[in-house]
Amino acid sequence: MIKLQNVEKVYRTSSVETLALNNINLTVNRGEFVSIMGPSGCGKSTLLNIMGLLDEPSSGHIEIDGSRVERYQDKALAQLRNQKLGFIFQSFHLINDLSVLDNVEIPLLYRDSTAKQRRELAQQALEKVGLSNRMKHFPKQLSGGQKQRVAIARAIVGQPEIILADEPTGNLDSAMGNEILSILQKLNEDGATIVMVTHDDAMAKRTHRLIRLFDGTQVQ
């Protein structure tokens, strides 16, 4: 499903070179729920961004569903991200001036769908995360846990095969964090492949497999 071969990421300035990822080789199989752990600054988010095609490796190869992504032109790469991948961020990234329903619809604006189709899919996604009674609310009217559920609904509205979650419970208390992880587990049971960055050992233990990073290197 996702395959990284000899992936490295180097950040360079005029005076400093930082090796963020060092020779990463890993495969995430279809239907897996994988967690990524490691100390702050070890490259977790960088790895997730590369897996999600939001950033490019300095060297190495990435395959998504058997296709080498470096062969894609920018337009095809954007289409692949929009159709195959859903993203959940720690900071929610909701637009405060838009209603919950409108926020969830955003990924569908880049698809060839009607306004009615977008609305129906957004409503279905919000029902899956238990927010059908908050569709007309605005982000500032929601709790942190509710905002994260909106973010999950936005991630799944396009029915992606892969969900990438960067610290999805990091800003939440333990009770709400458990609720969010239960939603992710249900999405995984329904067929989604999930990769989650987390700092929480208890959350990681509820996934199928743990990948550990230290100083940009995968720890066996």
From TrEMBL:
Q: Which SMART domains match?
A: AAA
Q: What is this protein called?
A: ABC transporter ATP-binding protein
Annotated GO CC locations: membrane protein complex
The record's family statement is:
Belongs to the ABC transporter superfamily. Macrolide exporter (TC 3.A.1.122) family.
Question: In which domain of life is the source organism classified?
Answer: Bacteria
SUPFAM superfamilies, from UniProt? P-loop containing nucleoside triphosphate hydrolases
Database matches in CDD domains: ABC_MJ0796_LolCDE_FtsE
What is the source species? Siphonobacter curvatus
Among the GO molecular function terms of this UniProt record, one is:
ATP binding
Which InterPro entries does the record match to this protein?
A: AAA+_ATPase (IPR003593), ABC_transporter-like_ATP-bd (IPR003439), ABC_transporter-like_CS (IPR017871), MacB-like_ATP-bd (IPR017911), P-loop_NTPase (IPR027417)
Q: Transmembrane ranges?
A: none
Query: Which keywords annotate this record?
Result: ATP-binding, Nucleotide-binding, Translocase, Transport
Where's the ABC transporter domain?
Answer: 2-219
Zinc as UniProt keyword: no
Query: Pfam families per the record?
Result: ABC_tran
Q: Does the keyword ATP-binding apply?
A: yes
